[in-house]
Amino acid sequence: MLKVSITKELNQFQLHSHFEVKHGITGIIGPSGCGKSVTLQCIAGLVTPDSGEIIVNEKPFFHAEKKLNIKTKNRNIGYVFQHYALFPHLTIWQNIAYGLKGISKHKKHKKIAAMLKKVQLTGYEKHYPNQLSGGQQQRVALARTLVTEPDILLLDEPFSALDHHVKHLLEEELLQIIKEHFTGVVLLVTHNMEEAYRLCDQLLLYHNGQVVQSGTKDEVFKHPKNISAATIIGCKNIILFDSLSQLDSGFSCTIAGTSLHVKEQPISGHTKAIGIHAENIQFVEKDPQQVNTFSYKVQEVVSGIHDSDVTIQAGGIIIKATIPNKQRPAVLTEKLLVRIPAEDLFLLDD
Amino acid sequence: MLKVSITKELNQFQLHSHFEVKHGITGIIGPSGCGKSVTLQCIAGLVTPDSGEIIVNEKPFFHAEKKLNIKTKNRNIGYVFQHYALFPHLTIWQNIAYGLKGISKHKKHKKIAAMLKKVQLTGYEKHYPNQLSGGQQQRVALARTLVTEPDILLLDEPFSALDHHVKHLLEEELLQIIKEHFTGVVLLVTHNMEEAYRLCDQLLLYHNGQVVQSGTKDEVFKHPKNISAATIIGCKNIILFDSLSQLDSGFSCTIAGTSLHVKEQPISGHTKAIGIHAENIQFVEKDPQQVNTFSYKVQEVVSGIHDSDVTIQAGGIIIKATIPNKQRPAVLTEKLLVRIPAEDLFLLDD
Amino acid sequence: QVEQEPQKELLVAAASDLTLAFTEVGALFEEETGVPITFSFGSTGQLADQIENGAPFDVFAAANIDFIDRLKEAELLFPDTQTTYAFGRIGVATLPNSTTSVETLDDLLNPEIKKIAIANPDHAPYGLAAKEALETAGIWDQVEEKLVYGRNISDTLSYIETGNAEAGIIALSLYQEGEVDFELIDADLHEPLEQSIAVINRTNEEELARMFIEFITGPIGKPIMESYGFIVPEETE
Amino acid sequence: MADINLFPLFLSLRVAVTATLLAIVIGIPLAYLLGKSNGKIADFFDSVLTLPIVLPPTVLGYYLLVLLGRQSAVGQFLENQFDMTIVFTPTGATIAALVVSIPFLIKSARSAFAGIDPSLIKAARVLGRSELSIFFSIYLPLAWRGIAAGITLAFARALGDFGATLMVAGSIPNETMTMPIAIYDALLAGNRELANILVLIMTSVSIIVLYILNRLEKKATESR
Amino acid sequence: MADINLFPLFLSLRVAVTATLLAIVIGIPLAYLLGKSNGKIADFFDSVLTLPIVLPPTVLGYYLLVLLGRQSAVGQFLENQFDMTIVFTPTGATIAALVVSIPFLIKSARSAFAGIDPSLIKAARVLGRSELSIFFSIYLPLAWRGIAAGITLAFARALGDFGATLMVAGSIPNETMTMPIAIYDALLAGNRELANILVLIMTSVSIIVLYILNRLEKKATESR
Ligand SMILES: Nc1ncnc2c1ncn2[C@@H]1O[C@H](COP(=O)(O)OP(=O)(O)OP(=O)(O)O)[C@@H](O)[C@H]1O
Ligand SMILES: Nc1ncnc2c1ncn2[C@@H]1O[C@H](COP(=O)(O)OP(=O)(O)OP(=O)(O)O)[C@@H](O)[C@H]1O
Ligand code: MOO
Ligand SMILES: [Mg+2]
Ligand SMILES: [Mg+2]
């Protein structure tokens, strides 16, 4: 269990971070410069918060009023830095060995060799960090931390420099290690939504130094609470509506004259927009019975490897849809109807 | 036009890089440690190749035999380093201004201010690099290079630390700048396939210090030439076959007793495997007429946000399919048939 | 502003044992002639080296006649100005109120006296004299163990004053009452410490320089020199 | 007390400041050039440059005197052509101070240059800057801490030099007598009190100057 | 030529090596502690530590003589308790050499420590190492270049010290007469030839030692 409730000012930047997470992997997602790394540094004791407290498994790490501040080295934390911070004067082997202590030489040797194998760097023991490629360096940083079996694991974009093949291997490795040895909290900063979804149990969405939403990954991805949250998780359709009215089974909202039906959801006074993931937009054969089904005009097509993003106009609504490339020709004829599933629409606060 | 034909030895690592690319954006993709950064450094004149030549727009930059080696500063190259290499003692403004010379103060000011706005760092002019977050630093590195309007642009994972929102903005910015000002060669190293596909015209696939395939992005993604190339572009299904026989309209290959029909393709003596993108696997209602259609058993399911990866066994073949989450329940009943489209199958050399 | 003639000035290089005496004599000389006089005190050997390399001194007062001879050979002096202006005297110095009083050289053998400071006999004339005296007294071999060498006579005094050497042999000219107890050594025990002075032939102030040499041995200089423990020879001419 | 001559103090400061400035102008480029080459020749040259520290100042002064004196080729040339003498002038004192102090600056600067992250130099080259401009815009500021330490050491050494200055410049009161010589003279004359006062003045002034140098170094590297 | 006494050379080397080792043991931790604090007090203290450079060695030697001499509290204590004297012994020479040389090491090391990337220290802390262990495993090796330069300077200064050593240790032939003193003596005795030969020996040995130090420094930082 990790409870963070701190504030910290850095130049013009203000961090007001309040959250509580249970053991398992928690993803931290948020735009560049929103305070993710600073939060991790506070938890590790490398940056001292201005006020508040940090508690890990009942044990307070930091308490501003009680002037309590456990030393970093006693926090038993594993931290993979965004910039790796490898020791330039130590070989890869020595870098990985650096945090290992109190175990026999033989055991140490075995652990490091095993870890090197896991990060696919066997043979590079005697190299120095500056003789490695960017991705190799990142793997050393990961290995150096994982080998120490810490109580809390703070991972600051640990896979950003890796090709997807190695990344997948290491993700699995990470999950394996966590499953086998690790009962504590893992915080994982990432910009990759798929990665977050694959690896994490819970998610924290950060924006401008504040947690804008937290919850299980499905909760967060299916129902982002507000516009910021929806933007952060990469929702491509965030549409401010003109009016919202309650129906029997949900709501109806009007956008530039077009009405959309939205399934039941909690609603606050701040609700301002609706959102839907581009992947959930469907194209169907003519069938005028269905709700939220419209004819459309295609405005723009951006192709990806397997999917394409199609921007269409349906009534007064402009919306993006992600469709498999195979479906693209059919969609481009504009002879289909677009269906905006009411159950996939979410209401967003300001 | 950029022609590279060099060799370089670094410790045990051997680079043998031979390629030629035209203007436009060329993506370099390859596993961690395969020599991408070293190649860029050779082009920039920061690492001297052991042999070979580098020619840009008819102008030789390097020629080992002629002992020709143009100085870096005279190559007019833009290089965004994987580790940014920002000047720690200069403010953000000064960092970006560093490469600008020979223009009036007023013009300089305008250019930098415009660039800061583009990378969304207005207000950070007076900060020093160590006061910025990882992603902000990366944007400064990008801005510092783009502002100089170089002849060749070498981008070493320039978006790796950015959230997808900012990344998209900068990708568009990059495309815009290139469209407007830039007629030269852009080399973009990336580990993100979607990014490569979105941004690049051509692709170079690297493996173990060698170019294993080059071509337009569609060519490369649709028809990777060999097993390495298929692995690099993230093809999840690479299956060694037992035998291959020529048919009227293509080939038939046998894997553990199951025969698959493959559409016409050039074939060499080294052809060893077939491959297919997981996204191209289809699930269809019962219809025993179609070729390459089988019943299957589900072995494993890994869910993503919108898609799931399903591993199935169809006859003797084990294959991964990526399907929309909506389709998952139907697939999991195992009442559908799997179709492995012959036109999407490619033959792979060793 | 009106005066075109450059300000007259006399620059005298003098051995460091002359520091006290010459400072006093110099003041009187200034009073008498109205010409400012500047002294540069230092080790004789060092000053000689400097003169050889063009130091702008007018007069050189050495503690050791050998160096004057050397400069004479190099034709840097007016030979006729060479004058022996004093003979140095040495004595045994001990700290006042020390338990071990030293009256004769033999007292230096007292085991209570652990260290004896003398100037370096290799290049300091007073050190050489001290060595000769100890040799003549026949105790050199016994005291050699206890000797420490100062760079010059003033360093030697420092060793005694700071109590690091129980005794030492210093120049009479450096002896200041109250600071140390002092017992003169018989002048017969060592070669005379002939101190020579001469005018350097590069001088622009030959007249004045000659005057200064005369002044030292003259009626005003002589008593002062004597008061600092120099034996001033009678005019021989 | 009232009649303590402060000329030596001001002379010393002037000499030390001039020597330090010269050391900066000569020493830093030299250190940079030495740093460019990693070879044995550079290391040998470096060792030779360290020599002035190893020789007793007086002896060093003697050789300088012989080299630059009015009998020497250099001395005669200067005297005949420009009517200039080096020895026994404040210029001589400055040169002596320069020679004894410059090795400290060179050594410190060389090691500071060597500590610079090479990727920053690469970045500067890619951005099209000339080596000279890189020297001023990257090398100097990034090595500043080490260079500043070297400057401080060189300045202190120049300020405190006694043996070499004495030999080359003589100890001519109100002309070439620097503070260390004045202190030594006072000691020589048995004037302990004066010596103590002069030492006190010297140390106070030095502490103030060194402290200011220290703070300046901080200032320049503060924001990083 | 055959009868040149090499004792001063060996004594000088012994004294310089011992003093340098002591300077390392005392100076590096001191520099580290000074570096920990960025405050004005540390800067003031730093300035005070630089003082031995500013004072003429002879004068410094005089004060050491007073401070450690046989009449002083320290001297008497040592003499009564351990029958040990500092002055006029090689120990005294070593202490004098230590005092004149240690400021160079402290200053160089402090600036080298200050140049270390703080994120590496953070990484080491996160990996659970104690400050002491971080000092040895990170600070020392990463500051090695600057420290090595400081060691070289300190060693050279210790080897070349004349004034302070002479004052504290006297120049007792075959006991405390170091090479610089021997050279000085030869020079003052007008024995130019001997002086030249001694200087030649001194410079050759110094160049060799300094060159080796230089190469060792390279060796240790080669692979990065
Ligand atoms: N040492 C510092 N001094 C001043 N401001 C700082 C400092 N470190 C970080 N900041 C500011 O704090 C904010 C948050 O930084 P942080 O590194 O936590 O961002 P982040 O969420 O990790 O972003 P990224 O995804 O780009 O790494 C940024 O706006 C940054 O400019
Ligand atoms: N200075 C060096 N000395 C020795 N070997 C080096 C050096 N630099 C790189 N290498 C080796 O060269 C190989 C290629 O490195 P390079 O940096 O080009 O990889 P990369 O393709 O950019 O990988 P990544 O995607 O991880 O950045 C690596 O195996 C690396 O270990
Ligand atoms: O070592 Mo000196 O000659 O007293 O400056
Ligand atoms: Mg960050
Ligand atoms: Mg790379």
Can you describe what's shown?
- The complex is a heteropentamer, with 2 copies of chain A (350 residues), 1 copy of chain C (237 residues) and 2 copies of chain D (224 residues).
- In chain A, 24% of the residues lie in helices and 36% in strands.
- With 350 residues, chain A is an alpha+beta fold.
- Chain A has 2 domains: 230 residues, Rossmann fold (3-Layer(aba) Sandwich); 115 residues, no CATH class.
- The mean pLDDT of chain A is 92.
- Chain C is α/β, with parallel strands linked by helices and 237 residues long.
- In chain C, strand 1, helix 1 and strand 2 form a beta-alpha-beta unit.
- The mean pLDDT of chain C is 85.
- By secondary structure, chain D is an all-alpha fold.
- Chain D is globular, with a radius of gyration of 20 Å.
- The model of chain D has no long low-confidence stretch (mean pLDDT 87).
- Classes of the chains: A alpha+beta (350), C alpha/beta (237), D mainly alpha (224).
- Chains in contact: A-B, A-E, B-D, C-D, C-E, D-E.
- Chains D and E meet through helix 2, helix 3, helix 5, helix 8 and helix 10 of D and helix 2, helix 3, helix 5, helix 8 and helix 10 of E.
- One adenosine-5'-triphosphate sits at the interface of chains A and B.
- The site of one magnesium ion (MG) has 4 residues of chain A, from helix 1.
Number of strands of chain A: 23
Oligomeric state, counting identical vs distinct chains: heteropentamer
Indicate the overall shape of chain A: globular
β-sheet strand percentage of chain D: under 5%
The general outline of chain D is globular
CATH class of the largest domain in chain A: Alpha Beta
CATH top level label of chain D: Mainly Alpha
> Main beta sheet of chain D: strand number and arrangement?
none
What's the CATH H-level homologous superfamily of the largest domain in chain A?
A: P-loop containing nucleotide triphosphate hydrolases
Number of domains of chain A: 2
- Rg of chain A computed from alpha carbons, rounded to a whole number of angstroms: 24 Å
Under CATH, the topology of chain D can be stated as: MetI-like fold
Q: What small molecules does this complex bind?
A: adenosine-5'-triphosphate, molybdate ion, magnesium ion
CATH architecture tag of chain D: Orthogonal Bundle
**Could you give the distance between the termini of chain A?**
31 Å
In terms of per-residue confidence, which ranges of chain A show pLDDT below 50 for 5 or more consecutive residues?
Answer: none
Which class best fits the helix and strand makeup of chain D?
A: mainly alpha
